[in-house]
Write a structure and sequence with these properties.
250 residues; alpha/beta; Alpha/beta knot; Trp Operon Repressor, Chain A; 9 helices; binds adenine
Length: 250
């Protein structure tokens, strides 16, 4: 998978490509990460990339010509890539969207706007999809593009090391991940649940299932409304409701 980020702040994104899982994925040739400086495609000697909005109003708008040239240069290098505009007006990014983008595309070109946004004619002619990472406005799309690259890269087979795994992640099957513990066995008087030390794989699996359900119920009940409970989960809920009943009767 090729990631290309079109930005006015390439250093910001380059340092992201140089660290952690992303840099290991690049070293292993499983992904590539490049930045293109939109300013390199400006058309005048002042390197202008923005201008005042037609119709008046505050702020500046990113000019179409440098953006067009930068997008075309990126597409020339990675022709099969999807062009994604980072904007708070876009489709909402979530784990499902991460899977979709990871499986459907050979490459992604992220257009990161600054100022009041980009000229609409670029959005309507050269952009394949607009994506938002949430209902809040940032000063540019760079952080959003890094959020998306990070969550997609870790889904690509081999990018996460063998000791890491995307299999038990939160949001897979609309459930939050179970609670995790590591050494020491006792920390500030708090003990690791016995079952996790037992070596009994089936008991550990059941404990984790229950932990995952409990967390989802307490923290994100909306996820449980989205998908049906399976037989094992129903059994767990029935047991809980019987236990709760005893409190009500007392
Ligand atoms: N650019 C500014 N705010 C953004 C957001 N919430 N999502 C994506 N890109 C953005």
């Amino acid at each position: 998978m090729n990631f290309t980020v079109l930005t006015l702040f390439p250093k910001l994104v380059d340092s992201f490509f140089e660290h952690g899982m992303i840099s290991r994925g690049i070293e292993k040739n499983l992904i590539t990460g490049h930045c293109i400086n939109i300013r390199d495609f400006s058309c005048d000697r002042h390197n202008t990339v923005d201008d005042r909005p037609y119709g008046g109003g505050s702020g500046m708008v990113m000019k179409p010509e440098p953006l067009q040239a930068a997008i075309l240069a990126a597409k020339k290098k990675a022709p099969e890539s999807l062009v994604v505009l980072m904007t708070p007006q876009g489709n909402r990014f979530n784990q499902e969207k991460a899977f979709e983008l990871a499986w459907r595309n050979k490459g992604l070109i992220f257009v990161c706007g600054r100022y009041e946004g980009i000229d609409e004619r670029i959005a309507t002619t050269l952009v394949d999809e607009e994506i938002s990472i949430g209902d809040y406005v940032m000063t540019g799309g760079e952080l959003a593009s890094m959020v998306i690259i990070d969550s997609i890269a870790r889904l690509i087979p081999g990018v996460l090391g063998s000791s890491e795994s995307a299999k038990s992640d939160s949001f897979i099957d609309d459930r939050l991940e179970y609670a995790q513990y590591t050494r020491p066995e006792e920390f500030e008087g708090l003990k690791v649940p016995e079952v996790l030390l037992s070596g009994n794989h089936e008991k550990i699996r059941l404990w984790r299932k229950e932990s995952s359900l409990k967390r989802t119920f307490l923290k994100r009940v909306d996820l449980l409304h989205k998908s049906r409970l399976n037989a094992e989960e129903k059994k767990i809920f029935k047991r809980w409701s019987q236990e709760l009943e005893t409190f009500v009767r007392e």
